[in-house]
Amino acid sequence: MTTTNPSGGHPLFPRHFIVPFILVTTLFFLWGIPNNLNDILIRQFMKSFEMNRVRAGLIQSAFYMGYFLLAMPAALIMRRRGYKFGLLTGLALYCLGTLLFWPAALVGQYWFFLLALFVIASGLGFLETGANPFIAQLGDPDSSERRLNFSQAFNPFGAIAGALIGTVFIFSGVELSPAQVGAMKASGTYQPYLRHETMRVIAPYLVLCGVVFIIALLIARTKFPQMAGEAPSDSAHHGSFRDLFQFPHYVQAVIAQFFYVGAQVGTWSYFIQYIQEYTRLPEKPAGYLLTGTLAAFCVGRFSSTVLMRYVRPNVLMGVYSAVNVALVATAVLFPGWLGMWSIFLTSFFMSLMFPTIFALGIKGLGVNTKIGGSLLVMAVVGGGALTPLMGLVSRIGNMALAMVVPLVCYAFIAWYAFVGSRVRHVEPSRG
Length: 431
What we know:
mainly alpha, Growth Hormone, Chain: A, 22 helices, globular
């Protein structure tokens, strides 16, 4: 039974792998953009499709269902064809999904947007299933948490870009009062207004499609190293799902990842609603505050990468989780400006959780790493499960009460960090 040690003496990655390292790290930035454009879409579609929080929360359900359903096929494909093929497949699906926003807006049907988001997330399922274990294995195992945290540190830049793009180019800043809505309905201008609001989503997604296509071309022309489990022989042992249950630290990592993504996605999805409910700020300033909390997330990622040179990753994550329990409890008990800033700060302390849980979970899996990584990616369905749950709780009570959901999530992650992450290998019984 062992615990993770600080990895200050090991380089992040071998120098001769710098090109694939940079290109795959770029993917962490790219999948952060649509993830956080969703937070803008929830607010935008509540307006343009006149829907409540629970129905708008289906955006996250459709999105993370794509991750859930495609992560396993992605692992099986990459087990046979390698990481590079899987990443290119993911980028192709990503491009297709962003293109679908154009006909979805023209048709003006909510289900069409949910389909487009599902396709985007299917591509991201391939990217995350491949990129996370690829980066974790691209160097010394003792520096895997630090290396993955470094690459994941570029994900919040994508998150910031997504929130900023959505706030500037999707939000119109026009928020109608009930009296104004009634007047526009009477004059016949209300439906054209709603259609105009829906059409605002097209341009950002088409530009994103072009950027993804360029990155796909660069990866296609780059030689990738062969990683563990990518044996040239078809008869080579690639691991099995049954083997994964021999690693308790891994099984608990899947549960922790489910709770973490649920806490992160739910918090960011309803952050604007929390702000508007308790501070009465308009949507544009609320959108900029969302961008600010994502910037705090980014700072947390880079600073935790440095701190892991001196502090065990599991200990650092445990302390950060405990701090978030206290911050979210403040947001529940003291809704208003104090609660809003408490939620704002949780992004800093949640920043290290996804890559650290991932790296701790796949430690010691050997040839099971690829399929193990797929289940950890499938666990992001927590974002699709817990976000509507928060919306439901907010309807029964209020947005402050809904924050109890991420509070419970952080409590479990703290337990995993201090206790459940210890690497143990339980040999299967014989005979």
